[in-house]
Every structure is written in structure tokens, then in C-alpha cells.
Amino acid sequence: MTSAAEQQGARARAPRAQAPVVNGTALPVPAAWPGSSTPLGARFRVGPDGVAGTNFALWAAGAEAVRLCLFDEQGRETRIPLTELTHEIWHGFVPGVLPGQRYGYRVDGRWDPWTGARWNPAKLLLDPYARAVDGEFALPPEVYGHVRDWPDQRVADTVRDDRDSAPHVPKGVVVHDDDDWSDDHRPKTPWADSVIYELHVRGFTRLHPGIPEHLRGTYAGLAHPAAVEHLTRLGVTAVELLPVHQFAHEDHLLKRGLRNYWGYNSVGYFAPHAGYAASGTTGQQVGEFKRMVRALHAAGIEVILDVVYNHTAEAGELGPTLSLKGIDNRGYYRLQADARHFADYTGCGNTLHVVRPHVLRLITDSLRYWVTEMGVDGFRFDLAAALARSMHDVDMLSPFLAVIAQDPVLRRVKLIAEPWDVGSGGYQVGAFPPLWTEWNDHYRDAVRDFWRGALPDVRDLGYRLSGSSDLYAWGGRRPYASVNFITAHDGYTLRDLVSYQSKHNEANGEDNRDGAGDNRSWNCGVEGETADEGVRTLRRRQLRNLLTTLLLSTGVPMLVAGDELGRTQRGNNNAYCQDNEISWLDWSLLEDPDWRPLFDLTARLIRLRHRHPVLRRRAFFSGRAHSADGLRDLAWFTARGEEMTEGDWYAPAATLGMYLSGRDIPGRDERGAPVLDDSFLIVLHAGDRPARFLLPGPPWAERYEVLVDTGREDQTQAPGVVHEAGTAVTVPARAVLLLKVTG
Asked: Please, which contacts does 627-634 make with residues 24 or more away whose CB atoms are closer than 8 Å?
């Protein structure tokens, strides 16, 4: 344990922040009027006697004093004590403070890390409710609440560092909220009709030749007609944006000359990340983000945010003091029994204590803000199981899930869970309650394994293709509770999935130790890029197989930006720190004759999905006959054209036929009429040699027309070949056939 004398000596050596001085004269300190404890944050308004100003309110329960710090254009600081305290909220109205004003807080209290108390008034803290952030987080020693370079690292976090952090951290910005969204029209796409496209604001637009250079990598770039046109041609209904909350870069990355590209390191839950703004960072980023949302809505595209409320950029006890840690460490974070150390269910050093009312309020206030004032349509919750923990265990009756379920704003938007965290009992696929959809990694694994020839039988594949009823057919949940995906931002791209057997993450600077080791990938016989045309042809076919399987499966498909173009990350399956050509979309692929057909096929499959309700069912299949002729809504066939028996499900198989009846779709349309559609037969063949498949006859069909044959390189239009029922068709090696019943 460090002695009091040693700590006092360390503080004495550290320079103290000074009040601003101009021409030798101390600036006057304006007084704060009492103001209001609600709403939290900095809100510009007209105060008493018609005086314009800003109300500041900060929850800091255990603090002994709070000072509001205002910064002018030269960085000079004015400190204003907030003396009003209501229900643990420090507040005050400061007349004359207008939109564009930069600010932060200094919070004083006990320094006693052994009990979790880490107040340090030398550290300028970002307002958790800041609507905009100006500047970027660097991580010099001054931004740490403890002496980071203390000789004995075992106790370094217990020695307070009194050096001023203000010159080294960004500031919050007062923003005027004056937008009523009256000219915006939300698409409100039903879940069953959704096709999600996961993209990175910067990476999607950074190299796009149709976007002006000064707009590339920004919200304005994503709003540009050239970007929107690609999305509409593809046919997706929603973009899922990788984190756009203000985030910071980790120290270990900055030391290696890298940056956090993905953004899963949030520090400001109300502020759009300033690094993605073309128009400015003193509040302009807010308007730019709103204009992006409007442009996407006008094109019929919803905006879903990937949000990280499970942890923050402050990491554990050895991390920096940027915001919550210095406001009330014990109040915001889960701590271990000894309170000096943080509980970590996220693998990122800390976990927000969502059971506490004020933390839950921070999260739900943030969510409502992005819906009501920023126009977004839904959220994908990173490591959602961490949010669903009560005191320790994951609890589907937890305060977080209960609050979301009853909230009149949030229960109406799209809610997607990443249904796991890294703590004990954190894997919760299939367990989230109604209202929620989930990333279904069972789907990912089964489809990958089938197409690489690693499934022992086809039982699991059957469940995944038909909506994963084994996971979701309870409590009123529907097939669209399953967000089906084969790739995501985390892991291989689709092209790399068929090109690499092993990860190649050397560029990350961690000696290839990072990233998943088991990727369920197959390189088609050669590791990495090759000039062997036979291997290249096989890889393109495998991509067509994977995309076709995804877009014909029951559930909500999620594509990753660039997979429809054959994008590669050169075998890097953890490109979180690669803000460069490894991660950015290569738009030249759209004009490459090898890869353009992949885009054409993807767009054609999405159009088919939009046209045919049997491909986007709102209820699970029953597997039972609904008419005298014995035709069922779902049937499974072997290559012999015979219905699958129980033994067939348990036997090794490389070929599977799936029949979808358009005559037996439950539900009615908006006018109350029955929903009727064409019927389809999907044949999936993962064998390395062509296979004969006997087409089922009556009552299933009289004739079949081939709409998709992934064995073909040219995918601009349907093959159009018609086969009589009862005849055998040759399915190419490793291919999918989609056949429509025509009689």
C-alpha cells in the first residue's frame, strides 16, 4: 500500500490548474442561478426575465462539490461552482451561455480507491449527457486519475494524480435542439419484411468515387445520393451503423500507431461521433447526422444504431478518468467485493451497473433521445446479456428489460440483442423476451458448416433454414426473432470465409494472437489470394451459395457491407483497429467482371424476397397438411425425391430439398384477405460432385421453373428452364437451385 507521504509528494510535484488570467487580471467568474435539476445535461433555454442561457444538471451522488468549467476559443477556463443539489443532482442556470459553448465538469470528493471512491478535481470530465463533443481523446498520463507511471504498478491505481487533464481532453458542447422532424417520414418496415445491411459510416464511404472527397467518411457522405443509390439498388430496408456514439481510442492502440476503427469504446452516449462529421464539431455534427437520417428515410431505409451500453472507454482501475469514473465511480460501475477492482462481464475492463436507477436512466434517456430527437429507428445492443444481469446473473426479468418493455417510445422501435457477454452464464441465444430479436449465431455456424462439408447431419440446418423454431417458438415470438447472419463486422468477410483457413491479423500488432481461432472457414484448397482460376471459380460459387442460403431462409437476413461485392480484409478476422484499405469498401469491385455478378445475384434475391411473402413468413411453419390433398406448408425431401424420414435427419447428407407452400401462409393481408403466394422448392447441395435430384410430383407440383442456379457464373437473370415433376435434375457440385412451382 502506498503511504500518505508518498501520495502527498506526488501531488505536490504535479502542477495545479489555475483560474484564467488576461493581461494580468483574473477573469470574473459568472454566478450560476439555481436553475433546474431536470432535464440532465446542458440545455439551452430562456430563463427568468427572458434571459437566454443554459441549464446544467449533473447526477453525482457522492460528490462533495461540482464545478462547471467553461472554455473559450483560446482554451481559457472559467470555473463556476454549482451549489444547488436536488435528489443527488447538482444544477444551475448560467445566463449568457449560448449554443456552441464548450464545457466540462470538475467533481470533488474522497480519494479512497479501496472503497471505490475515485474523485479527483484535477480531471476535467465529459458530461455524460453532452449532445456534442469537440476534440479527440488522447491518453497522456495527465488524463488518468491515478499516477499511471508510479514505480510500483501493483498499487499505481491507488496514488492520485493531481495534474490538470483539461488541455488533453475534448469538451462537451452546448447544442440547441430546435428540430421537430415534421418533414420526416419513417419507413416503419415490419420486422418480417426487413433486410438489414451492417455498415461503417467511414468505411462505407471513404473510397466511394461518386462521393465528393471532402464528404467521404462522414455522415454527409452516407447521405449523398451516390451512397443511397447503392443501398436502394441492392434493396436493403435498414442500415445498421457500427457505433456512432462518441468514442475514444485505447492506449495500447495509440502506442502502436493504430486507432479504434469499429468504435466499441463509447464515452458519450448522446453525442454523434465527431470524427464522422464533415461540417464541424461544435454542434454541427448533430445537424449533419439528422440530415443523414432524413436522406435515408426518404429512400425508404431505416437507421439502426449499434450501441455499447455495457461498458465505457474508461476501462478498469488502471484506465483513464474521462467521465463517469470521476463523477461517481461507485455509482456508475459494477465493482468487485473489494471495491478497488471493477467487475468485468464485457472483456473491456468495466461494466455499467444497469441495476442502479440513475444508470438505467442514463441509458434509457439516451435511447429515447436518439429516437425522438435524432430520428433513428432501432438499436442493436452490443453484449446485451451484460445489460440483462441483475446483481450477478443474467435475468430476463431484469430492470433493463422491464423498463424497455413498458417504455412507450422504446417498445415501438426495433430492438436487436447480441445475446451473450463474456461472464459466467452469459450465453443467452433464444432467451430474450418478446419484442426482442437476436443475432442468431446458431444460424451462422450451421450454414458455414454445411457449405464446408462439416455438418454430421442436416437436423440443425433444417431448423436454421425454417426460422429456428427450436430457439424462438415460445412466448409469442415469431420467426423474425432470428436475425440470420453468416458474417458480421467481427470476423471474416464472406470472401475471406472461402479464402482463408487461418486468421492473418499480423497488421494488428499482436503477433496474430487476437481474433477467433475457430472460424468454420474453408479456403477451397489454397490459402489466400491465388491466380488458380479453378480455385477462384469455386470461391465465387461458394459466395453465391452462402448469400442465396441467407436470403432464402426464414427470419431476418443481415448482410455486411461489401460482402455483395466480394470485399476482402486479406484474412484479418479482427480488423477493429484497421482504419485503412483493409476495412474500407473497395468500390472498384462493382465494375470487376469477376465480382459484379455477385452484386446482381444479391439484388435479385432481395427483390424475390420482397415479392414473395412465403420467403418472409410472420409465423412458424406447422409441417402439417391443411387440405385434403396432403400438401403441407413445409416439407423436406431427400435427393431421391422422397420426404425425409426421422432416420434421414440423423444420417450424413450433402443434399437437402426444402418445399415452401405459398398456399398455406398464416395470417391475412391489410384488407383481411388470405395471403397467397407461389410455392418453391429449394435444393441445397454441398457435395463436391454433381448430384441427381428427383423433383417431387403431385400434390407438390406438376412443373418447376428454375429461378436461381448458383452453379452459373452469369447471374443477371433467371435461367428460365422448366422441368416436369417426377423427373431428375442435375444439381451442380456445391450449388443451390431455387425452383418455382408452375403447375
From this structure: 627/663, 627/664, 629/698, 629/699, 630/699, 631/661, 631/663, 631/664, 631/699, 631/700, 632/661, 632/664, 633/660, 633/661, 633/663, 633/664, 633/665, 634/466, 634/658, 634/659, 634/660, 634/661
Side-by-side strand order, sheet with 41-46: 41-46, 52-59, 89-95, 84-86
Task: Using alpha carbons, select from 146, 138, 184, 150 the residue that is nearest to residue 163.
Answer: 146
> For residue 741, which of 641, 661, 625, 657 has the smallest C-alpha distance?
661
Q: Helix 357-372 and helix 399-406: axis angle, to 10°?
A: 40
CB distance 119 to 325 below 8 Å: no
Residues annotated as catalytic (active site), given as ranges: 382, 418
Counting every residue written for the chain, the total comes to 743
Q: What's the pLDDT at 666?
A: 84
Spatial separation of the C-alpha atoms in residues 498 and 465, rounded to whole Å: 21
Angstrom distance (rounded) from CA 335 to CA 351: 8
Report the distance separating Cα 572 and Cα 516, nearest Å: 10
Backbone angles phi, psi at 607, to 5 degrees: -65, -40
C-alpha cell at 553: 431462409
How crowded is residue 142: how many other Cβ atoms within 10 Å of its Cβ?
Answer: 22
CA-CA distance, 272 to 108, in Å (whole number)? 28
State how far the alpha carbon of 317 is from the alpha carbons of 6, 452, 722, in Å.
20, 44, 67
The partner residues of 440 in beta bridges, in order of sequence, read 484
Q: Show the beta-strand stretches assigned E in 132-290.
A: 132-134, 171-173, 196-199, 238-241, 245-247, 266-272
CA 22/CA 404 separation, integer angstroms: 51
Residue 671: CB atoms within 10 Å: 5
Specify the residue for cell string 439502426: 304
Three cell numbers written together for 522: 474453408
Return mean pLDDT, the chain.
Answer: 94
pLDDT of the residue at 154: 94
- Euclidean distance between CA atoms 126 and 97, whole angstroms: 17
- The CA–CA distances, whole Å, from 97 to 48, 52, 375, 551 equal 14, 7, 27, 53
Q: How far apart are the first and last CA of the chain?
A: 83
Beta bridge partners of 545: none
Q: CA–CA separation, 239 vs 200, rounded Å?
A: 9
3-state secondary structure 251-319: HHHHHCCCCCCCCCCEEEEEEECHHHCCCCCCCHHHHHHHHHHHHHHHCCCEEEEEECCCCCCCCCCCC
Q: What is the pLDDT of residues 568-601, one digit of tens each?
A: 999 999 999 999 999 999 999 999 999 999 999 9
The segments of the chain whose pLDDT lies below 70 read 1-29
Q: Listing from the earlier edge strand, what are the strands of the sheet with 703-709?
A: 634-637, 655-660, 680-685, 735-741, 703-709, 722-724
Cβ-count burial of 176 within 10 angstroms (0-12 exposed, 13-18 middle, 19+ buried)? middle
The pLDDT of residue 624 is: 82
Q: What b/e string do you get for 212-238 counting C-beta neighbours within 10 Å, with b at 16 or more? A: eeebbbbbbbbbbeebbebbeebbbbb
Question: What is the identity of the amino acid at 736?
Answer: V
Whether this prediction's pTM lies above 0.85 is answered by yes
Q: Counting Cβ atoms within 10 Å, is residue 509 exposed (0-12), middle (13-18) or buried (19+)?
A: middle
Q: What pLDDT is stored for residue 714 in this prediction? A: 87
Please give the Cα distance from 683 to 690 (Å, whole number).
12
Give Cα 103 to chain centroid, integer Å: 29
Distance of alpha carbon 693 from alpha carbon 696, whole angstroms: 9
The answer to whether 348 and 315 have CB atoms below 8 angstroms apart is yes
> Using one digit for the tens of pLDDT, what is the confidence trace for 98-111?
999 999 999 999 99
CB 636 within 8 A of CB 657: yes
